[in-house]
Amino acid sequence: MEIPRLKPRGETASSARVDFSEMTPELLPFLGQAAYIQLEVFENLSRAVSTAPTLTAKEGLSAAAGIALAKHHVLIAEIRRRDAKPDEVMAPFRSAIDRYRAATTGSDWYELLLSSYLTAGMLDDFFIRLADGLPGDSGPWVAELLGRDAGTDVLVSELQAGIAADSRLGSRLAMWGRRLVGDTLLIARSALHGTGPETPVESRIEPVFTELVAAHTRRMDLLGLTA
């Protein structure tokens, strides 16, 4: 699958809101993929807790992990409410998301923190937009759930402190942050219904992906990194 092509930085994307109604998956597959992504976020943050160098970092990261797990449980409860089995609904997405997680975990604690911060943010942003096409009142409550405070202040503060103490770390993390974009956009694109690798939908979804990259750039800027 090709990485979605984006306009060069600085070009203005269309301000019209993209209609995702034809590309939003059925509700259960949407919930299954979103739930499994939240579980992966929890697992990444839990790993960051186990390797954190200070008790302050452990406490803050454990709180962020708890938020991701709580979101996962809400999505799972909705799947059960619709008389479906969560493991069966999540199963089709497990292999791709596990590969994505392996490719974006990073080689040390700081890369893991940056990945947890950037990729979770991009995917939450995307699934909030994708929820526009869900039936009935499902879209608004999913968007509200995924838009809740993710407790990422601790990730930002730990990354900022590490970068301030080591300029070489900043250069390395800037490169790592840029590498994360392509894999994350591919996972986002895979969530779209009826959009195989040969489907000509890039012109329709390009504004959304451009927005995702713009938000990614703002997160990088907050850390003093160049996107």
Automatic annotation (TrEMBL):
Pfam families to which the protein is assigned, alphabetical: MiaE_2 (PF13794)
Domain Ferritin-like: from-to ranges: 30-187
Record-linked InterPro entries: Ferritin-like (IPR012347), Ferritin_actino (IPR059125)
Top-level division of the source organism's lineage: Bacteria
The protein's name: Ferritin-like fold-containing protein
